[in-house]
Design brief:
This protein is mainly alpha-helical. It contains 9 helices and 3 strands. 47% of the residues lie in helices and 4% in strands. A hairpin with a 5-residue loop joins strand 2 and strand 3. The structure holds zinc ion (ZN).
Length: 240
């Protein structure tokens, strides 16, 4: 008789010894406004929500959220995303909705940007970039994940998108170096894995692996240079 060694998924528990699985649905007690069944933490969903707010597929905070009135009172001093962020910082409200910077800009200022891509294509590109990084990170040695703001900024920079202006700028150089080192390592490992897989798999996979690698904007030498300018950073470099 198996004594069961349970592993928990978001909807069941599975015995790692005998494989028996028992459905188990939990109620979400964290947020009383959410759907009653616990959906667990979903990184891809969280990133997509950020993208939807940036691309204005999302309509922003609820109409009764006090942030709308607070921003309206300051409308006369806002003309660009930077002004919006400055005002948000001063507001006496718990949730500042920084992710809604573009929605607020469109509502309270005349500031607009021109987009190089169709928004639907851009959404697909951003989500796909995130999923690639997320999948690579899952098999990486890192136990902490990237900052979502960092990844969004990196992706928009790669795509040379003017939407970058709506993102929170980098404030901590040390944290930036930590994430860029992680990203370089994760992308490098992913590329190596693709090449190894391609040599033993079907022509289909071979084609995928031979497609141009995603650009790595900061290589190991550049990171070393950045570190040299401030050697107090404790950053582990990947082996190139
Ligand atoms: Zn068992």
């Amino acid at each position: 008789m198996c004594e069961h060694n349970w592993l928990h998924t978001t909807y069941s528990r599975v015995c790692s010894t005998c494989g028996v699985e028992i459905k188990q649905l939990h109620v979400d007690t964290y947020n009383r406004f959410s759907a009653p069944i616990l959906r667990g933490y979903n990184r891809c969903a969280r990133f997509k929500l950020k993208v939807d707010k940036l691309l204005c597929f999302h309509s922003g905070p609820q109409f009764k959220d006090k942030i709308w009135n607070l921003l309206k009172q300051q409308q006369h001093i806002m003309s660009c995303p930077k002004d919006i962020r400055s005002v948000l910082r001063t507001l006496n409200t718990k949730n500042k909705h920084y992710d809604c910077c573009r929605i607020f800009s469109r509502t309270f200022t005349d500031f607009r940007v021109s987009l190089k891509y169709n928004v639907h294509d851009l959404r697909t590109k951003l989500v796909s970039k995130f999923e690639d990084i997320f999948m690579s990170w899952c098999s990486s040695p890192y136990d902490h994940f990237f900052s979502y703001d960092f990844l969004l900024r990196e992706f928009l920079t790669d795509l040379e998108s003017d939407l970058l202006v709506f993102c929170k700028p980098t404030t901590c150089k040390r944290r930036y170096l930590k994430y860029i080192t992680m990203l370089t390592r994760v992308q490098h490992d992913c590329k190596t894995l693709n090449q190894t897989t391609a040599s033993i798999h079907s022509p289909n996979v071979l084609w995928h692996a031979n497609s141009p690698p995603r650009p790595i904007r900061l290589d190991g030498v550049q990171i070393l240079r950045a570190l040299a300018s401030d050697p107090s950073h404790n950053v582990v470099l990947s082996e190139e």
